[in-house]
Please model this.
Amino acid sequence: MLAEARVRATVWSEERTAAEREGRHAARRLLGLPSDTSDSASEAGTASETEGEGAGGALFVDPDAEGSDRDTHLGPDLVSPAPVGTPLSDPPLMREISEDPVLRDTRLIAEAWDCGGLVQVGAFPHYGRAWSEWNGGFRDAVRSFVKGDPGQAGAFAGALCGSPDVFGRGPNNEYDADDWWVREGGGGRWKGGRPPTASVNFVTAHDGFTLRDLVSYNEKRNFANGEDNRDGEDHNLSWNCGHRGAEDDGPAGLADPAVARRRDRQSRNLLTALLLAHGTPMLLMGDEIGHTKGGNNNTYCHDGPLNWLDWENGDAGLARFTAALLRLRREHPGLARDYHPSDADIKWHGIRPNEPDWSDESRLVAFSVGGRGVSQSLYVAWNASHETVTIELPGPRSDFQWNRGRWRVALDSAAAAPYDVLLSAAEGRGRGYLAGGLDDEGLKAAHREHAPWMERGAWQLPPYSCVVLENDACAAPGT
Model:
């Protein structure tokens, strides 16, 4: 079981000696582990493995270890009213946690930014251990591209690759030109050389909009919090898909069915990017069933329906789509490498194969990956424009024989449930969560309907939609 611990691990420079002495004990206390000696720590680790009672991991919120010189790291445009101090390049608490014989083998996750303006994402003091970091850049790139913002195709592709510009490249990375922490604050020693798994990818989190609200509201609606809608994040990169807001008719009962369908598509488009990208995906509980908070993006103060999950009346079709994405991620190793993919591992496409468009006006991103004995096992494409796009698929039938298979649709966000998921519930892992979809005869009929497009080596992507094609040579039997 993954335990979640929250702490603001602030260490002031004049207390460094005390922090060195108390670091290990503090870390153990916040995770609920013994804090006596190394021997008792080892015993606790054994109990954890055999009885399953230990902490499997922890999330550290704002774990920036800071010094005592007020505001020196913020610069003229980022000044906090609180004494935020100078961050330490070698924070003792983080080092103690990373080197502790019990804690170093747990899943350690940092939310590596603070309210003072410091951002350490990609250069968090990890001490060579298995620290991962919330990747806010992934969130912003995915949200921006999927809702059709210009100039986002390249950033979106980078996010799909596990953000190599953030985690893979060293401190001389051109993207760090304005990063004080990396350039001057000592963070350069921690920058670069880390795998995609260091990036905790997310589109939504406990703070901010849920997935459903992200596609239903342009602005927050936090009046129920008693602060006249002043609290909560204003910069949400959200889009209501052409309607004034779900509060008018309820998210499931919109007067305009076209808006409702667009929201369904956008939810699936975002989930596809999250769950098929390199890195460590983090899914907000309830997003898979379409949970809404009515546009409130700061519900920490509520113990009621805004935060309660209605499992009985959730969106079963969206849950099935999510389960299908997780199944594809498990079954296609080309989606989860332990290194950032190169051109040899991933092929980028546009309207035509191997001709991606990285211009500011591009709203089409497509890629294919290999694995399971074939050079191209999966093809994924997003159309974030308001126009239908016809794309030519890589490896048309005349050239595809050597690849031992042909494309067929696995997921299609433009199709209404249950036709959006064309994977069999009879075979493969996670089949229980795919129950309620098409039976085998329904799947065969759907594939026959798509056959003319597959024969042409082409596919038509409606506005704001995505498609996942699977090589039938490596698909699970019966799918």
Observations:
- Confidence is low (pLDDT under 50) at residues 1-21, 36-55, 65-83, 396-403.
- Residues 13-201 form one domain.
